[in-house]
Amino acid sequence: MSGKETSYGTIFKTTFLFGFVQVFKIIVGVVKNKIVAILLGAEGIGLLGIYSSTIALIQQGAGLGISQSGVRDVADAKGKGDKVQFSKIINVINKIVLFTGLLGCVLTLVLSKYLSEWTLGDTKHVTAYCIISIVVSCNIINEGKQAILKGARQMKALANASIIGVSVGFITAIPLYYFFGKAGIVPELLISSICAYLISNFYVNRIKYDKLNLSIKQAVSLSKKTIVAGGALMLSNFLAHLANIIIIAYIRKEGGLVDVGIFNAGTIIMTTYFGVIITALSTDYFPRISALWNNNKAIEEELNKQSIVSLILCCPLFVIFITLMPLFIRILYTEEFLPAVDFIKFGVIGTVITIVSNQVDMILVAKFRVKIFFLIAVSYRILEVVLNILLYNLYGLKGTGISLAIMGLVHLIVMIFIVYKLYNIKFNTFFIKLATIICGIITTSVYILTLQHNNIKYIIGILLSIITIIFSLHICETKLNIHVLDFLIRKKK
Q1: Distance (Å, rounded) from C-alpha 348 to C-alpha 446?
Q2: Terminal Cα-to-Cα distance of the chain (whole angstroms)
Q3: Can you give the pTM of this predicted structure?
């Protein structure tokens, strides 16, 4: 088997592994969100969304971006075969995340009164935010542990940790929401975060590395580069969550908690359900390019191969989802959430573009060009807030979906231009042709969704889905030398 075949096959197998994990997450999430929607309603979903967004905001701020920069450092040491440096980096990350976890806890406690006022307009939720401080701490430490697993290419362990964590979250959530209603949201977040940390820590302890007794001075010295890179990534992610908080607060002010709940439901579908697909596609990609950070030609090859496999695997899923979107909304939530269809049908275009743009984005992180990365992030988030507020005022929730599509396109264009100018890294002709065809298919499926006659709409949509599946299988067989059906049969056996 040639190197090209091996590379495509490896990408496909890794994606299949995490694709299975993410499908499991989606199935559990579907059942969980359906039950939550019935038990808590749109207001409960809105409250859960506000808590989750606030946790993510503080988590990114206090986490110092170690969950991303740590992956790069561990992968670089492992790629070089430097066992001493590999052990040092893991020990340093373990120490850093203990500090950042404590920092997140203290920040949440200090700001609990203000967080309650800023996010929910009163001080009735101070106690909830004090409990959430533990959630923030556990999440930060857990992300650091998962960064070690990713960088060390412990993909099966990472997959197992994800499956167990999701299962525990589901098992604890349902009875809490059933018996306590909205009062069960905070305890469920707490139990899930503690269990996730314990599971990840168990798998990290199974990695073969030397446990060193580093002094504080040594740890600080070894972690400078990681913290500098992580700081820029942290600020970038912090801005993303801050922008989301501002947008949600504006929607709550102008449209109320029901609009927030519908917006959050649509966002969950695109960033959680499709976000897990993006995670599956990028989990092994970032460690790979981090190990090749000084080889532009190799990175370009990885970018093209990863992007091609990503589009081929995702295209049928997107078309099927868009075709059956109203049905999925009813399954995932209730009739009350059907207005989210207008938001999602435009936003999903932005999600498709993001699958590719994120892979270009990661090159700057792997190259340690954190200043450029941060400047782009600041400009992007300012534009995102302005555009969302403007289009929400003009078109309501549909406007926020249009904003997501526009922002995805802007991000892709900017990242392609910068990476090409800096490193002469670009997409090849085959990818451009493939991307053009797939964009046309996705746009067609969105147009079909706007048809008024339901029977005609579903018939055409299902036919397009079948054609898309056949097209994707054909490309895999003839261009990538990936025999999908044979692979699935072997896995089943």
Answers
A1: 9
A2: 23
A3: 0.71
